[in-house]
């Protein structure tokens, strides 16, 4: 059983015991424990069930690479699934529950899958669930969804806060082991601005466990001294609990700082750092590889380094009797550490034919039995290890002997953590001697100057010895500082010394000729349940690319992203393909290094800070007066002004009738207003608009259309000529910034010699539409400029005073009523609105919203950009040929309209639509045509673009695009109606109200 | 996240402050052009793996469009220059050739 040792545990504060719960059971640990070490100290070896076969699983690792130890953490607003027990620091009151089991962790009915594993091989989803077709949606998928997945999604809103930091440094160093510290020392002494980050709470990395000698002192003493020196430098910042999560183009890096995961906290829980570094040094160490032998997934089989970490860092023995299985010298350190802690090591099983290095000899000297040329045929046990069956590594798995044990410490060698190096394109090379991929310093990720901006240091760079790592890391820090522009001297590199090691002998399968039975129990990916046999099957079935094999088998696709499994998996793949490992290559490393919280990505961008809202001078009044808002770009516009006792629909109908009968006010301030000015402004607008703007007379207005170079409608609006070289262009509400940018693009990049200046004055003016039969009366009551028919005719504008306000009055109408749009300086907008509201009382004034605006324009057959247009509609489709100038040689879209499919007579064209029963057509409904297409779907001959209930007409009104529509007036066609009978609809003129325009010409 | 120097402001700008505008140095074809010419102008782009001329706007800065010569494979930037030109300036061409001797102006 696993238990707490009395004598060791360098990270523990045994004076501060803490209590926590696991699956509701109250357990105790110490400050300094991780959740993993505390669970092991309480003999909680079983921590979860595997993804596919629901096999019992225990902790395998001691760090970020842990695949099995995933738990739900916390509750309510602090609940989070899939948290790794190995990186979760223990604190008093921590609550964890295990995942992926039913009904309980100890007894899981899904475990039957392990006996069905012959029927659940790689790609079984694709093979088993194809036929019959409808079963996928209704039977297979719901079942798979239910049995798949790991943790539960949180139900409550996240109660914590999060934030982003931006940092600019010369040298970012990721990893606070001895290599990272050394690199920081060199870069710091050279005078560079350095940020050194470490993902755990502790400095020194693995050296603190293995305690090599550095500069004549213990690693512990050297780390303390180095840290003190670094913290004494004003140009060096050090931070723990901060993971380098990703490296991106041109020296951009992301780091994830966990401020509140180790206990109660004030302030943000996580902080996402966006770092711009001139140089990045990744001193990210290495991850030990598991060995692929049968039943290597049983609880109690751990990485050799993890067994050592638990013993020395946390004072936890995973078992009383540990068998070490290895192909390298490093694992002997585990055997020696355990023996020295007073635990039993019945045997070291070394796959190599001989082991005569310093460490093996030291192990033998302690009386440990060392078996060379041997391997594990299978691990014995059910929910935990009870023993190992030993065989010859060179053979097929005939059992020579069984050794009783309750822990197996395995080591297949070490893989440098090259993730950050690779994120932005750093290439790897295969090191045959050390059996690992390591960074190829000749092919780094490049910065904007064509110089590599990432280097790796120490173990991460393939230098596994202390001496090699320190020398390499010092050089990396020195070089990075120099490349970043630092001029100082780095001084001398620290010297390290540790036991000389003999070479590793790569072992990708144990024993090398393992039978199918053994291979189908030899796990590669613990979290996604991928075995040696699955990868071999994928290769056999033709998934030869490592990326294809990955997706077919799901190898490396779990939340650990294959930190333990990828190298072993691709070695198996390369063997199956009879190819070399470097030829097969690795899958792509993508950020983040380990999962980061979604909330940290959001940062403070939630609620009112999610997106800044734009307000008009009238917005506050609207919100105080029943506005039911709708988003229009970043604006919130009143859809309708709802009075007490009314529904929104009632309010719309009231506004529609009142505006036609009395007086309506619309806050039109959001309309885009662009001033286009200069000697060439007229020529420029003639290019921008399809119709002629240069010949517009001063004082007059003209409705204009804008097309893209593709010929598709992009915006419309009224243009007014202000003086000889000044025009004011109204755009749609959503189009102001876009059209401004569009004009700038053409002026800067195509016609840069034209003398034109464009200014977006949208927010400088409040604009209020005064609409209805009483519009003139209310303006005359306020007094000031002459707004009579004679003084201010339709489609003209005047500057002057209205009441006490400086106003520009445009006599334009989007409703078909007598209408003035009056612009006043934004600062006077609210006062002007109030004056109109007060003066209009005797004329029946009511504000109206965007829905009323839509209905009024639809009654008049006026198009709306975004309703009648969708990026595929040309002016000709909307019968707007009159607005396409024939006099102009060129305008944007003109050439496109000559293309064959633009001139095609079969394009759908705008018509009005009148249902025979007066009902309102569904928005977007299709007009049904005869027959079916090649996919068996009904043919269509048109679609609805705008549809409303018109209170003025007492029935539904609509517009739509219909094949040959304008030539089919009076014809009755049918429109789709989901869940009901098709709707019989007559094709009519789009203008259904005041066809002769008598109401606006008064 | 790229860094490009705005040739107007002279500052190194993060990509988040920029707006990309596709391939640079396109020749506009309007009325009077053939269908093929117009089609190519609208749709056909080089999309090279290697040296590429691009349009960028310093949208959260001065608002100006500028052009950049950049390697799409290594992300190396050879130079940025104002948009008011129909071809890359001599010094940019030289900077490219210094790093990519086999590269030829199309």
UniProtKB/TrEMBL annotation, chain A:
Q: Name one GO molecular function term.
A: sarcosine oxidase activity
Query: Which of UniProt's keywords are assigned here?
Result: Oxidoreductase
**Single biological process term from Gene Ontology:** tetrahydrofolate metabolic process
Aminomethyltransferase C-terminal domain residues are: 909-994
- Residue spans making up a coiled coil are none
Where is each FAD/NAD(P)-binding domain found? 170-421
The family database entries (InterPro entries) matched by this protein are listed as: 2Fe-2S-bd_N, FAD/NAD-bd_sf, FAD/NAD-binding_dom, GcvT/YgfZ/DmdA, GcvT/YgfZ_C, GcvT_C, GCVT_N, Sarcosine_oxidase_asu
Report if keyword Oxidoreductase is assigned: yes
Kindly list the residue ranges recorded as spanning the membrane: none
Matching Pfam families:
Fer2_4, GCV_T, GCV_T_C, Pyr_redox_2, SO_alpha_A3
Q: Where would I find the GCVT N-terminal domain in this sequence? A: 620-888
Q: Where is the SoxA A3 domain?
A: 520-603
- Tell me the domain of life: Bacteria
Which family is this sequence assigned to? Belongs to the GcvT family.
What is this protein called in UniProt? Sarcosine oxidase subunit alpha
Q: Organism source for this protein?
A: Cognatiyoonia sediminum
From TrEMBL, chain B:
**Could you state one GO biological process linked to this protein?**
tetrahydrofolate metabolic process
Superkingdom of this entry's organism?
Answer: Bacteria
> Which Pfam family name is an example for this entry?
SoxD
Enumerate the GO terms in the molecular function aspect. Answer: sarcosine oxidase activity
Tell me what this protein is called: Sarcosine oxidase subunit delta
The species this protein was found in: Cognatiyoonia sediminum
């Amino acid at each position: 059983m696993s238990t707490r040792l009395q004598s060791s545990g360098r990270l523990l504060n045994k004076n501060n015991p803490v209590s926590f719960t696991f699956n509701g059971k109250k357990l105790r640990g110490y400050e300094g424990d991780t959740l993993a070490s505390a669970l092991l100290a309480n003999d909680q070896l079983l921590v979860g069930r595997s993804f596919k076969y629901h096999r019992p699983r225990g902790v395998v690792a001691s760090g970020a690479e842990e695949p099995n130890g995933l738990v739900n953490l916390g509750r309510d607003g602090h609940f989070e699934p899939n948290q790794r027990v190995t990186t979760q620091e223990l604190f008093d009151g921590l609550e964890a529950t295990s995942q992926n089991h039913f009904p309980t962790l100890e007894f899981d009915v899904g475990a039957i899958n392990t006996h069905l594993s012959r029927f659940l091989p790689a790609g079984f989803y694709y093979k088993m669930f194809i036929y019959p077709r409808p079963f996928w949606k209704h039977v297979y998928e719901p079942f798979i969804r239910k049995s798949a997945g790991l943790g539960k999604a949180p139900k409550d809103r996240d109660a914590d806060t999060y934030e982003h930091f931006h940092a600019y440094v010369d040298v970012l160093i990721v990893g606070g082991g001895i290599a990272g510290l050394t690199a920081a020392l060199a870069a710091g002494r050279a005078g560079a601005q350095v940020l050194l980050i470490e993902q755990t709470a502790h400095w020194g990395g693995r050296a603190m466990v293995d305690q090599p000698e550095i500069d004549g002192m213990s690693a512990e003493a050297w780390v303390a001294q180095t840290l003190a020196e670094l913290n004494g430098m004003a140009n060096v910042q050090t931070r723990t609990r901060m993971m380098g999560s990703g490296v991106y183009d041109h020296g951009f890096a992301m780091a994830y700082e966990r401020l509140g995961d180790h206990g109660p906290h004030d302030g943000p829980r996580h902080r996402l750092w966006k770092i711009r570094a001139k140089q990045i040094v990744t001193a990210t160490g290495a991850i030990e590889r598991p060995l692929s032998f049968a039943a290597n997934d049983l609880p109690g089989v751990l990485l050799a380094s993890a067994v050592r970490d638990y013993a020395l860092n946390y004072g936890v023995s995973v078992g009383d009797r540990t068998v070490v299985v290895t192909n390298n010298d490093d694992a002997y350190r585990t055997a020696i550490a355990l023996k020295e802690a007073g635990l039993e090591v019945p045997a070291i099983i070394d796959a190599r034919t001989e082991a005569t290095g310093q460490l093996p000899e030291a192990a033998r000297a302690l009386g440990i039995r060392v078996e060379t040329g041997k391997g594990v045929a299978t691990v014995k046990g059910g929910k935990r290890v009870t023993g190992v069956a030993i065989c010859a590594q060179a053979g097929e798995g005939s059992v020579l002997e069984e050794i009783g044990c309750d822990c197996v410490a395995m080591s297949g060698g070490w893989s440098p953590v090259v993730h950050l190096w690779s994120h932005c394109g750093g290439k790897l090379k295969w090191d045959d001697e050390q059996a690992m991929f390591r960074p190829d310093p000749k092919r780094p990720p490049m910065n904007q100057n064509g110089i590599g901006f990432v280097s790796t240091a120490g173990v991460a760079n393939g230098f596994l010895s202390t001496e090699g790592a320190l020398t390499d890391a010092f050089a990396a820090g020195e070089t990075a500082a120099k490349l970043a522009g630092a001029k100082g001297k780095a001084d001398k590199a620290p010297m390290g010394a540790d036991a000389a090691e003999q070479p590793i002998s790569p072992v990708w399968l144990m024993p090398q000729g393992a039978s199918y039975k053994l291979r189908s129990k030899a796990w590669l990916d613990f979290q996604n349940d991928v075995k040696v046999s699955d990868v071999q099957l994928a290769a056999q079935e033709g998934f030869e690319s490592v990326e294809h094999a990955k997706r077919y088998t799901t190898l490396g696709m779990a939340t650990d992203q294959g930190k333990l499994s990828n190298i072993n998996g691709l070695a198996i793949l390369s063997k199956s393909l009879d190819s070399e490992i470097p030829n097969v290559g690795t899958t792509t490393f993508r950020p983040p290094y380990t999962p980061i919280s979604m909330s940290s990505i959001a940062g403070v961008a939630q609620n009112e800070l999610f997106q800044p809202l734009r307000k008009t001078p009238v917005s506050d009044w609207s919100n105080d007066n029943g506005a039911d808002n709708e988003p229009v770009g970043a604006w919130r516009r009143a859809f309708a002004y709802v009075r007490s006792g009314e529904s929104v629909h009632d309010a719309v109908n009231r506004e529609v009738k009142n505006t036609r009968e009395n007086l309506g006010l619309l806050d039109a301030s959001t309309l885009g207003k662009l001033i286009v000015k200069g000697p060439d402004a007229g020529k420029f607008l003639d290019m921008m608009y399809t119709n002629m703007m240069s010949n517009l007379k001063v004082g007059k207005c003209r409705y204009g259309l804008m097309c893209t170079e593709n010929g598709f409608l992009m915006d419309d609006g009224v243009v007014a000529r202000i003086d000889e070289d000044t025009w004011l262009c109204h755009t749609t509400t959503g189009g102001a910034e876009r059209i401004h940018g569009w004009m700038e693009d053409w002026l800067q990049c195509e016609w840069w010699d034209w003398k034109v200046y464009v200014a977006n004055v949208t927010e400088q003016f409040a604009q209020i539409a005064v609409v209805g039969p009483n519009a003139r009366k209310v303006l005359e009551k306020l007094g000031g400029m002459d707004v009579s028919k004679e003084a201010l005719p339709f489609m003209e504008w005047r500057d002057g005073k209205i009441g006490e306000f400086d106003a520009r009055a445009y006599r334009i109408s989007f409703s078909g009523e007598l209408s003035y749009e009056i612009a006043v300086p934004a600062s006077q907008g609210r006062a002007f609105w109030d004056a109109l509201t007060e003066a209009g009382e005797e004329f029946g004034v009511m504000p109206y919203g965007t829905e009323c605006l839509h209905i009024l324009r639809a009654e008049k057959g006026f198009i709306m950009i975004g309703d009648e247009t969708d990026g595929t509609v040309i002016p000709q489709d909307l019968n707007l040929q009159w607005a396409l100038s024939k006099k102009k040689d060129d305008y944007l879209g003109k050439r496109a309209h000559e293309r064959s499919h633009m001139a095609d007579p079969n394009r759908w064209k705008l018509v009005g639509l009148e249902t025979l029963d007066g009902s309102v057509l569904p928005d977007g409904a299709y007009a049904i045509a005869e027959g079916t297409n090649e996919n068996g779907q009904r043919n269509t001959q048109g679609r609805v673009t705008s549809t409303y209930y018109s209170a003025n007409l007492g029935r539904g009104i609509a517009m739509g695009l219909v094949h040959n529509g304008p030539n089919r007036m009076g014809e009755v066609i049918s429109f789709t109606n989901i869940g009901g009978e098709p709707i019989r609809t007559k094709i009519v003129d789009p203008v259904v109200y005041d066809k002769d325009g008598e109401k606006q010409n008064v | 996240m790229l860094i490009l120097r705005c040739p107007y402001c002279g500052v190194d700008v993060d990509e988040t402050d920029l707006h990309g505008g596709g391939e640079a140095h396109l020749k506009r074809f309007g009325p009077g052009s053939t269908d093929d010419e117009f089609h190519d102008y609208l749709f056909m782009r080089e999309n090279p793996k290697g040296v590429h001329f691009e349009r960028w706007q310093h949208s959260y800065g001065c608002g100006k469009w500028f052009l950049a010569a950049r390697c799409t494979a290594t992300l190396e930037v050879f130079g940025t220059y104002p948009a008011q030109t129909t071809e890359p300036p001599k010094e940019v061409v030289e900077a490219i050739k210094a790093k990519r001797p086999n590269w030829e102006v199309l």
